[in-house]
Amino acid sequence: MHKTLRVTALSALMLLSGAAFAQARISPQSIIVNPVETELQVNVWTDKDPSGNGRPVYRPGERIRLHASVNRDAYVYLFSLNSAGQVDLILPNRYDDGDNFLRANTRRAFPGEGDPYTFDVAAPYGVSKVLALASLEPLDIDDIARFENGQTGFAEVTVKTQTGLAQALSIVVNPIPQESWVTDVAEYQVAAPAPAPAPNIAYVNSVPLLRLYPNALPVSQTKRGLNTTTQFETSASLRGVFNYYNSTLGRLGYRRTVRTERPNQISARYVRGNQELRVELQDLPGKRYEISFNRNR
């Protein structure tokens, strides 16, 4: 199974001393924090940032692995939250390793080796969060997520948005002793795919010393013998592009003998000694041009 991980990122844990049953504090960054300092500690991190304090970058299609550990035997609940507010429950789940009881000073990876699922990063772009909540006793999260009868895999989550998750969890932890639960967060950035590098096209291969149109973004170039076809992007006009090549060819010793202009296309013929050069410039959609140079020798 390939589960699309559309969220992820947990903020730094903030702990403040307080009364034994102080109310859980909702935080825009950490989602929910225990205002009481506890002996119980939980840590969550991603495979690209073992410290759990950074914001590593993932791109759509990459696989991500989450890790968690506790310093005391505890029940750990992992939630993911993406930049659009979608909430997923990662742990507990109904796979073989889906038990959310973690032993003290051990580390668990999700997915673990051999697990029948993966977490595949997907849009929306932005900061995603993973929230780890550890408790010394099991928590009743049926109002947040539940498994239907006979359901396998991951639970259906009923809450939406970070605020909704924080409010729901504050109700869940309210009945238990304040010192018996704690949270941690880890963040990562879902970034758009890196753009393909522009091809290194500076010259028109079939005409020595003839450069590409100034400041144009090269797209592609194909060459067959003495013929070269180049595509590039520029905001210049069709005539502006043609005039550049026309004047440049003149400086290179070519004399124009024919010019034909149609909508979205200009063609011309040039001669230099016994060499003949045919040029065809086409205006393509999206501020893109294609220019062909065909030499007879």
From TrEMBL:
Which residues are in the DUF4384 domain?
57-138
**Pfam entry (one):** DUF4384
Q: Does the keyword Signal apply?
A: yes
Establish whether keyword Signal is in the entry: yes
- Which keywords describe this protein according to UniProt? Signal
In terms of superkingdom, the source organism counts as: Bacteria
**Which positions make up the signal peptide?**
1-22
Kindly give the PANTHER family that the UniProt entry links to this protein.
S-LAYER-LIKE PROTEIN
Q: What is this protein called?
A: DUF4384 domain-containing protein
Q: Which organism is it from?
A: Deinobacterium chartae
